[in-house]
Amino acid sequence: MEPRVTASTAPAPLPLIYPGSRLRLRTLIFIRWIAVLGQVVAVVAVQAGLDFDVPLVPVAATIGALALLNLVTALRHRGAIWLRDSAARVYLACDLLQLLVLLGLTGGLQNPFSVLILAPVVVSAATLSRRSTVLLAVLAVAGIAALAVLRLPLPWGGAGLEVPQLYVAGILVSLILAVVFIAAYVSSLALEARRMADALGATQLALAREQRLSALGGLAAAAAHELGSPLATIAVVARELEHELPETLPPEHPLREDTALLRSEAERCRRILAELANRPDEDEDTPYHRLPLSALVEAAAQPHAHPGIALRLQFEGPQEAQPSVPRLPELLHGLGTLLQNALQFAHSEVTVEIGWDDVQARLTICDDGPGFDEAVLGELGEPYVSTGSRGRRSAAIADGSAKAGQSPRRDHGRDTQSDAHMGLGVFIARNLLAHVGASVSFGNRAAGGAKVVIHLPLAHLRIRSEDT
C-alpha cells in the first residue's frame, strides 16, 4: 500500500521569504528607479544648465543599462519577494559597478557625487551578511582606487579647474576609510539588532509553546476527571465478558486474548489517570528522590516494557562514577515517552548509552526498529505532524500509539489502530525536558533504527532539585 500523504506532510509551496532575508526586491527596484531618475536629472542639469561638456553617449548608455536591468528584474519577479543573501549581493554589486563606470566617465573622484559609492556598502552592512558586506567593501575600495587613475576629466565649463593631485589623494583615502569604517560599524550594529530580534522571536516562540503545554495540562486534568467513570465501566464489562466465555474455549483462543487485553488496557488507563491525579512532589523527601542515571532510565522505562524487547544499558565510563539526578516528574515523563516510543517499535532490543562529564550527562536511545521517517525528521517535536505511512515512525507515533499492523494484539485481518494521530507525544516530551534544561535531538542510525540524544545539564538539575 502506498503511504498516505496528509495535509501536514504534503509538499508546501516555496516560501517567498528565504532564511536570512533582510532586503525586499520591490524596495531595491524602487530605489533603483530613484537612482536612474536622479542620474538623468543630474546629467541634464549639468549639460543644459551649467553648459558642461558631458560625454552624453557613454553616460546615457550607462544609465540606460541600469534602467533596462531594473525593468527586466521588475517584469521577471512580481510580488513581495525577499532576496537571498547571495542574490542581493549580486544586485548591489551591479549597482556599485554602474556607479563606478558613471563616475569614471564624469571626472572620477573629482566628481562631488563620488560619495554615493558608500550607498551600496551601507545597504549591505544593514541588511546582508558580514561576508557580503566585506565583498562589496573590497569591490568599492578597488573601484575607488581605479577611479583615481582611470577616469575622464571632469567636464568643467570654459577653462575649467585643475584639482591638485594631493586633494584627489585625500579624497581617495577618505572614501576608503569611510567605506571600511561605515561597513564595520553599521554591520556590527545590524548584527546586534538581528541577534536581539532573533532572541525576541525565540522568547515569543518559547512562551507560545509554554502556553500550549499549559493548555494541554488543563486538558489532561479534565480528561483524568471525565474518563474515570467510563474506564471503570469498561473494566467491569470486560471482566463480565471474560467470565461469560465458555469454559471449553482454550486459553489461546482469540476471544480470550481480546477480552484479557481489553481488561488489562483499561486497568492501564486507570493507572495513568491515577498518576496524573497524584501530586508530583509526594516523594521529594524520600531517600529515592535522587537516582543514578541508570536507575532513572530503568524507572522511566519500566511502565512501558514490551515482552521480547530487551533494554540494554551501556556506560561510557565506570558505572560507579555515574552522576545522580533528581527524580523530577518532568524528567521521568519526558524520558519515559521517548523510551516508550523506542520500545514500541524495536524489533528485539533498545540500547541506552549513558555518558557524562563535569558539565552535562548524555543519554542516547537507540533501537533496531524502522527508524523515523526522513520526511518529518526535521519537524519532530512540533504538534500535529503526521505522515500516516506504514512501517516507518513519524512524529505522531511518539504519542504512544502504534500504527496498524504493529499493535501487540492480534488484529485477525483488520486494523486495530487508526492512522490519524495528533503527534503530541514528542512535543510534550520535548517541552517537559526543556523545563529541566535538557535538549533533545532526533536522527536515524546508519545501521538502521532510530536514535534520540538527550543532553542533561547537571548544574541546572541540581538547582531545580534545590528549588523543589
Task: Summarize the structure in words.
This protein has 468 residues and is α+β, with helices and mostly antiparallel strands. It has two domains: 25-203, no CATH class; 291-467, 2-Layer Sandwich (Heat Shock Protein 90). It is 53% helix and 9% strand. It is built from twelve helices and seven strands. It has helices spanning 25-49, 56-76, 85-105, 118-127, 130-147, 165-226, 228-244, 254-277, 293-301, 329-345, 424-435, 458-467, and strands at 290-292, 310-315, 324-326, 349-356, 360-367, 439-444, 450-457. The strands form two sheets. It has a five-stranded mixed sheet. Strands 1-3 form a two-stranded antiparallel ribbon. Helix 1 packs antiparallel against helix 2 (56-76) and helix 6 (165-226) crosses helix 8 (254-277). It is elongated, with a radius of gyration of 34 Å. The chain starts with 24 loop residues before the first helix and ends with a helix.
Within the largest sheet, what's the order of strands? 2-4-5-7-6
Structure summary, number of beta strands:
7
Number of domains: 2
What percentage of amino acids are in beta strands? 5-15%
Given the helix and strand composition, which structural class is it? alpha+beta
As residue ranges, the low-confidence spans are 1-20, 279-287, 386-392, 394-422
Q: Distance between termini?
A: 51 Å
- What string, H for helix and E for strand, traces the elements in order? HHHHHHHHEHEEHEEHEEH
* Average pLDDT figure: 77
Q: Radius of gyration over alpha carbons?
A: 34 Å
- Global geometry: elongated
The major pleated sheet works out as: 5 strands, mixed
Number of helices: 12
Percent range of helical residues: 40-55%
